[in-house]
Amino acid sequence: MWDFGQSADGTTNPAQLRAERAASFGAHAAAYAEHRPDYPTTAIRWALEPIATPAPVVLDLGAGTGKLTEGLLAICAEVVAVEPDAAMRAELARRFPEVIASAGAAEAIPLADGSVDAVLAGQAFHWFDKERAFPEIARVLRAGGVFAALWNEDDLDVEWVAELHKVTRTSASLPSQEQLPARLPAHPSFENFERADFPHRQRRTAESLTATIGTHSHTLVIPTQARNELLARISDYLRGRPETAAGEFDLPIRTDVLRAVRRPVDTRTPQPN
Fold first, then answer.
1. By the 8 A CB rule, do 118 and 138 touch?
2. pTM for the full predicted model
3. E strands of the chain, at which residues?
4. How far is residue 207 from each of residues 7, 92, 191, 233, 240, measured CA to CA in Å?
5. Residues 228-251 pLDDT 10s
6. Distance of alpha carbon 130 from the chain centroid
7. C-beta of residue 99 within 8 angstroms of C-beta of residue 111
8. CA–CA separation, 65 vs 195, rounded Å?
9. Cβ-count burial of 17 within 10 angstroms (0-12 exposed, 13-18 middle, 19+ buried)?
């Protein structure tokens, strides 16, 4: 028996479990960088589409090891990164030494007002405290700038992927944290949010896909024995499916994107009554 995310009476404490999951990645930063998928260029370009600047200054917020940073650099964006976890930030700096990577969080961004054209969050928005994060994001954005959140999600319309998803669930799995918001976000600093999704894929083997799932927070916070048993079940499942049993295969992914444009700042002086 273990007590992560549990209260004194043994019931699950969602807030504590969420915090433990959010803080679980640093010790596995190298594996995260090796095994997590990138983001398709089509999704990144759609996120930045409202910006006219050909080489925008983009904040990668909650940048992790730089999975989204890599895609932004590929389209010639100027990237600054903010990441709260020191180990993840060190891995990003090792991979992309040309990118300034600063300690910070969505709720306390260490950048000047109006200093970036866009703020993008890859696989991170669900960890933010939205009430505190939205004002900070709006503060560092220029008027007309873009905020966008991206998620890579397994394509559950594919039968073997849906079955794999069932195999991978643990006692730490919380569906509300593993999916993009059921409703579009809203904040007075931003125009109405839009949503789009893009097909993507990751070339994997049974071994590398097992390792990929091993970097998911719901597998990182469970005890070592339970984690080893889970990864063994995943490996057995993949080796038993004709789609994944031999050699390399494509893992079907959907990349979901939410975006909104920063409203102009109202600088009008209130008129006296």
1. no
2. 0.84
3. 57-61, 78-82, 100-102, 116-122, 141-154, 194-204, 249-261
4. 36, 24, 44, 12, 13
5. 999 999 999 999 999 999 999 999
6. 15
7. no
8. 25
9. buried
